[in-house]
Amino acid sequence: MTAMAKPMPVPTPTTQPFWDALREHRIRIQYSPSTGRYVFYPRILAPGTLADDLQWREISGAGSLYTFTVSHRPVSPHFADDVPQLLAVVQWDEGPRFSTEIVEADPGALRVGMRVRPVFFDYPADGVTMLRYAPAE
């Protein structure tokens, strides 16, 4: 099958700091002093308090595999050449969860709770860096 161009995220003014950090192979997410916790996905007001106090802070990106699935069917035709895909949710050590894809891994070795590390995938033609995860071992 001929590979189709994959859809790429389009940063907005609210999400731009997240994408800018990924391009530098860093992870920055928002922190809310009014709630005392990190927040993800990027937004304008703090969840729960609606405070206008969100700050961008760098995190390590280390975390644990919260859940995953091995997809043998592409989520869209753009990903037909990528199956099986290891679709996952990672829980960052700082608290929030992040939907991603696991790379550099044997599907049979994945376990909920295992430690994972960030892996950055650059797409220079699109000016985007995507965040994926791999087993920490």
TrEMBL record:
Pfam families named among the record's database cross-references: OB_ChsH2_C (PF01796)
Q: Which residues form a coiled coil?
A: none
Q: Which residues form the ChsH2 C-terminal OB-fold domain?
A: 56-120
- Write down what this protein is called: Acyl dehydratase
